[in-house]
Amino acid sequence: MAMVSNPKLTQSRYTDIQGEPIGKLLVPIKGYQNEPLLPLEEAVKPIQQFFNNLEEHVWIAKENCQTPKDDLTQDEAAAIHLYTMQFDSGESLYQVLNRTLRAENRDGLKSWFLYLKLFLTALHKLPSQPQTTVWRGVRNVDLSEKYKTAVRFALELWLKDVHAANGRLLA
């Protein structure tokens, strides 16, 4: 797999906070759950126009997911892998999807429904990791005041607490 050595591209993964809908709820995503579960090559067809060489990235993701764990199919594991990949030209899938997920107009998500069905099915199969700390570094930006303290939030069917590095419970 080609490695991206551009530090700005790598850094953008950690500082991707533009348009973050802090302080307001967006309308839930509805409709993707009714889509059929398709192979990754089929699931990305409606979003191919957003990317350069998406077929090549799908092939690389599937090649890197020949023996998936956690009862994932190859296509499910590759859907997760594709989301994590840094594309060498143009925007990466995670950048475009994150921006679309943050948009108030939910109509833009419809072209993502087949991919979201596969991606979220895969994520749902992953074992939970209780009391796991997930770090997201954003250099020189203090976002703590934008989050309410001592509030819980739900995503799908599970409930998680989010704590800041200082131990404060964040929403």
TrEMBL record:
Superkingdom of source: Eukaryota
InterPro entries referenced in this protein's UniProt entry, alphabetically: ART
Top EC class of this enzyme: transferase
Recorded catalytic activity of this chain's protein: L-arginyl-[protein] + NAD(+) = N(omega)-(ADP-D-ribosyl)-L-arginyl-[protein] + nicotinamide + H(+)
Record keywords: Glycosyltransferase, NAD, NADP, Nucleotidyltransferase, Transferase
Enzyme Commission no: 2.4.2.31
GO molecular function: NAD+-protein-arginine ADP-ribosyltransferase activity; nucleotidyltransferase activity
Coiled coil: none
Family according to the record: Belongs to the Arg-specific ADP-ribosyltransferase family.
Name used for this protein in its record: NAD(P)(+)--arginine ADP-ribosyltransferase
Provenance organism: Didymodactylos carnosus
Record lineage: Eukaryota, Metazoa, Spiralia, Gnathifera, Rotifera
